[in-house]
Amino acid sequence: MKNLAYIFVSLVLLFSCKPTTNKKETKYIKPAPRITVPQLNPDSAYNFVKQQVDFGPRVPNTRAHEKCADYLVKKLKSYNAEVIVQKATVKSFDNKSLNIKNIIGQYNPANKNRIILTSHWDSRPFSDHSEHPELRDNPILGANDGASGVGILLEIARLFKQNPPTIGVDIIFFDAEDYGSPDHKDLPYKPDAWCLGSQYWSKNKHRKNYSAKYGILLDMVGAPNAIFTREGFSMNYAPWLVDKVWGAGTKLGYSNFFDYTQTGSITDDHYYLNTIAQIPSIDIIQYDPTTETHFGAYWHTENDNMSNIDKYTLKAVGQTLLYIVYNEK
Ligand SMILES: [Zn+2]
Question: Does 204 fall in a domain?
């Protein structure tokens, strides 16, 4: 045993003295890092929608609007976004001065490789599509029309804190999207009366020489059994992005939501991102084949409240966006 041990030690010494230049190189291929996409929590997203609705209608120049702005800024900051509040005064269709705030939560602001995720945070000052004429001058709660998209984006911000994205992301909450002329009054047509916040931002971006690869707008993304069709302007300006998002939704098992039918063009914030800001942008917006307007029956009525919000729809849309962000190179 003694001898064997001696031979073993000698062998070890012999090998360890071998000049390193003769060492055979082992080829090692580094595996691609596994992409972990965080899981959206539908209860949390729902709660973010509810908290906005609890302020009441978020109509510019009201106390509820101001309080909700403070809430959104506080939330984004708590999730490590670098926040810019862009204040402006814009003119409404009836020549009122509206004090608006576009709220921008930046992640990796120095990274030139960036995308925009956006939604409008104001709610409409009229229930002009209500069945009840006496209600039509009332503002709406906008649970789906406004708060749903913002709720999903706040949940995404929460997940960004836990799993910082590698690309740059700007979460932008546009103001005064829904202040267009009411349909229940016989007013002359006024162009560009909607999307006042995004029009302002597109002409006055929050940073000098700002650019982004693309933008994804969420509007009315929380109704039960919602269908999102391929909207006209999105298909005109960024069909490749529609393919990318609809493809991701389908891959994740949400093909009931992401429908490949192409439908009409809708003037929404993405229109101005495309035409003024020159950032290719699409709109994920509910299409309802059963109504005359092709918006949900709750649209611009007193029924756009929390009963109109389904956690599974929030999950489908939010999880699809998360897949896009974490797979973006
Ligand atoms: Zn609306």
Answer: yes
